[in-house]
């Protein structure tokens, strides 16, 4: 099998590439910057918003499966809809033989149920657990725009499709715009090295309530399953680890991995973006002292996204029944997801 992964250098794309390579696939990895791709991935350098460049880059690429794992952020959701649907549409137009596609997988997320960034979790709280048959929310949402492009292309070219809706994705990728795991690793490292208190930055609802996350390896396995199993075709699926937890239970365990104490919860949101502001020089000193690979805090941490996730005023629990009944039974411990990531980051010298 030949796969084209759009966004192959990102958190989801990298882990999917590793999964498919392990399964014996030939993998083409499309990104604007292809540095750091796994060695066996065939690099395809192109900007999905540049049709001419994209057409040239894909002229000799004929995949059986296409996996779209990237997005771009604009100032408004209306602009997000235009740009992100265009990215997907441009890829279909640039492929020399889209009619030869067997399957296309699209990765979106829980903003399908919670709404876009500019109205995130606003209004009446959605009823949990989130289920795939919930209706679309009113208003613009670039996930809906992407789905519509996918459905139109599937009807035109005759391939099967799958939509994957993870919660917060935990896994190894540097420079990712939505990377809670690495952000918390950097935050905990700063706390240990400088004496800052390791305070949970989110809302009381997130601290006390049940929630879940998605390991990038779990998501990669889910995407591979949907592309190869009859039960995964022409369906939208939630995909999370399979366990649930409370942050007030997990937070001390994360602190323990770093050899620090978890600070008492302050009782209200205490944004991480503000806590990390002004810590750039401290991180440079830490990076120098421990010979770390990156001394630029902004290239490791994405506090804005972590604040958006942990600051939600609503409970977030995701139902996995549909996937399980269709044949996907894989399970992943969330505590293990974080600890495995921390092990990787330390081994590759991104954290001390």
TrEMBL record:
Protein name: NAD dependent epimerase/dehydratase
Source organism of the structure: Swaminathania salitolerans
Pfam families the record matches: PRISE
PRISE-like Rossmann-fold domain span: 61-352
């Amino acid at each position: 099998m030949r796969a084209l992964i759009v966004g192959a250098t990102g958190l989801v794309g990298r882990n999917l590439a590793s999964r498919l390579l392990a399964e014996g696939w030939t993998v083409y990895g499309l990104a604007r910057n292809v540095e750091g791709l796994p060695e066996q991935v065939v690099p395809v350098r192109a900007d999905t918003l540049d049709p001419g460049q994209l057409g040239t880059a894909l002229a000799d690429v004929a995949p059986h499966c296409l996996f779209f794992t990237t997005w771009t952020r604009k100032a408004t959701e209306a602009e997000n809809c235009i740009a992100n649907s265009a990215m997907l549409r441009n890829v279909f137009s640039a492929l020399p033989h889209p009619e030869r596609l067997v399957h296309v997988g699209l990765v979106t997320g829980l903003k399908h149920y919670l709404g876009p960034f500019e109205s995130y979790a606003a209004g009446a709280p959605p009823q949990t657990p989130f289920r795939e048959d919930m209706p679309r929310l009113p208003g613009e949402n670039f996930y809906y725009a992407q789905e519509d492009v996918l459905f139109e292309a599937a009807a035109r070219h005759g391939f099967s499709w799958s939509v994957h809706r993870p919660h917060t994705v935990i896994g190894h990728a540097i420079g990712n715009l939505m990377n809670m795991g690495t952000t918390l690793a950097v935050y905990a490292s700063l706390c240990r090295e400088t004496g800052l208190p390791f305070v949970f930055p989110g809302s009381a609802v997130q601290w006390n309530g049940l929630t879940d996350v998605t390991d990038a390896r779990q998501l990669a396995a889910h995407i591979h399953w949907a592309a190869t199993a009859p039960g995964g075709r022409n369906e939208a699926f939630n995909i999370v680890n399979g366990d649930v937890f409370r942050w007030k239970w997990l937070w001390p365990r994360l602190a323990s991995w770093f050899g620090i104490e978890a600070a008492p919860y302050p009782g209200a949101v205490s944004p991480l973006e503000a806590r990390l502001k002004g810590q750039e020089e401290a991180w440079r000193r830490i990076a120098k002292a421990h010979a770390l690979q990156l001394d630029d805090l902004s290239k490791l941490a994405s506090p804005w996204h972590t604040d958006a996730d942990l600051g939600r005023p609503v409970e977030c629990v995701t139902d996995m029944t549909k996937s399980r009944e269709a044949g996907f039974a894989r399970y992943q411990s969330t505590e293990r997801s974080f600890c495995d990531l921390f092990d990787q980051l330390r081994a590759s010298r991104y954290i001390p």
